[in-house]
Specification:
Layout (H helix, E strand, L loop, with lengths): L2 H9 L24 E4 L1 H8 L9 H25 L4 E4 L6 H7 L9 H21 L9 E5 L10 E5 H6 L7
Parallel strand pairs: 1-2
Antiparallel strand pairs: 3-4
């Protein structure tokens, strides 16, 4: 995983679910809890089959992808177990939230969603600043969607502001 992404994850103020092949057991900070999902070969095939395979031979590309993904999944699961992390086999047939919660240490007490939303907005702002400074930038500050920072559970309100409006505004709440 890219170093910047790791720094952003470590800065998160709340427990976080992260998924993707770039999340490796060796990158989990000492003392943190983690759970690794190990997809069954059948589930991998079910998920990958509908995806387009950019190749002159899509069937062969899919077969090769399935082999590569299986090797990678086996290595991740093995390393996770070596490091003492639980591994949950995922066949796609059921939700596994209860199993996951039983396997991973989840902090007790209320979670400060204001801090989480602020982190989300600040991470977006950093990405947008970098994009605006890049050669691919459109040369203008587009209006974007920012998360409400009220902290209420279930709030999905947003604000539409440019980056400069977001950075110069004390108004961080949609209501």
């Amino acid at each position: 995983m890219h170093e910047r992404a790791l720094r952003e994850l470590q800065a998160l103020p709340i427990p976080t679910v992260v998924e993707g092949p770039q999340v490796q057991p060796d990158l989990v900070p000492p003392g943190d809890s983690a759970l690794f999902l190990d997809p069954t070969p059948a589930w991998q095939r079910e998920v990958l089959t509908p995806r387009p395979m950019p190749s002159s031979d899509p069937a062969r590309a899919l077969a090769n992808r399935l082999i590569k993904d299986r090797i990678y999944a086996d290595r991740i699961a093995e390393r996770a177990r070596e490091l003492g992390f639980p591994v949950l086999v995922n066949d796609g047939s059921r939700p596994f939230v209860d199993e996951a919660e039983a396997l991973v240490r989840i902090p007790e007490g209320p979670v400060d969603l204001r801090a989480a939303r602020r982190w989300e907005n600040e991470a977006s702002a950093a990405n947008i600043r970098a994009w605006l400074a890049s050669p691919e930038s459109p040369g203008f500050d587009p209006q974007l969607t920012w998360s409400c920072e009220c902290g209420r559970y279930g709030c999905d309100a947003t604000l539409r502001l440019t980056l400069s409006e977001y950075e110069s505004s004390d108004v961080r709440f949609a209501h």
